[in-house]
Design brief:
By secondary structure, the chain is of the alpha/beta class. The protein is built from 7 helices and 10 strands. Strand 7 and strand 8 form a beta hairpin. The protein is globular and about 55 Å long.
Amino acid sequence: MLQADEHSCSHFLAIDAGNTRAKWGILVASDGEATTLPTCLRSSAVELGAPLPWAELVCDHGAPAHCAAVTGSNPHEVERIAKEWPHDWSPPWIVDDRREFPIEIDVDFPDQVGIDRLLTAVAANVLRPADTPAIIVDSGTATTVNFVDRRGHFCGGAILPGFDLCAKALHQYTALLPLIEMNEVLDADATPAELGRNTHAAISSGLYWGHVGAVKELLQRMIGAADAPPLLLLTGGAAPLLKPHLPADVRHEPHLALQGLTLVARSLLIDE
C-alpha cells in the first residue's frame, strides 16, 4: 500500500524490473485527473541483479520521493528490490494486481497479461485522442506490438523475441555462430548491409532486418484491422533501431512504461 496522501506525492520514484535490466525514473505527476503524461525528470537502468544506485533515486532537493512504486515482468527482481529497499525510506507499493489498473483488459486471460504491456497501454490512453485506437511497439528483451481500441480497452497483440534474445539464441543453440551484441549495431555508422559477406555480417543482417520486417508486418496488419487510423507509439531500449524504418507518424516515447506506472500509482492514491 502507498504510504502517503496524494498531495504529498508530486514526485514519484517508478521502478520497472524487466528480464534484462531494472529501469527507474523520477517523475512528476500533474495534480488531479491525468490529462498529460507525467514528466520524467531523469531515468536510468541497472543490469539484472545489480544493486540500484539509491543515492541517485532521490528528488532534486536530495530527499527520497514520498511515493514509490515497483513492478515488472520479472517477479524475482521485484522481490529483490523490495528486500533491498532503504529502511529509512517510505516502503514502495508493489504493483501486481491488474484488477486495480485504470484500464479494461479485453483478452482471454486478463490475469496473464504482462504488466509492462498494460503500463504502456495506460500511458497510451492519455495520449490517444478520443475515439482513436492506439498501437504500441515496445522493443526490449521481448518486443511486443499491442492494440488499444477506440474505447481505451487493451485488446492484446503480438509478442516476439527482441534483438538481443534472438542473437543469444543463435549463439547458444549452434556450435559455431558467434554472439553479436546489438550495441555493436547501434554504434555503427550505418545499418547492416542486407547481403552479409561474412558470418558476422550475415548474422547482423538477419537480426536487424528480420526484426524490422517482423515489426513492420505486424504493425501493417494491425493498422489494417483497426476501425480508425490509430495513434502509433514506440518505446523500449531498442526503439532507435526500429524508428527509422517505421511509419513517419510513429511517436517515440522512451519512458512510456515508467509513465504508465506513475499513472497507476496516482490513480490508486486518488481512489484512496
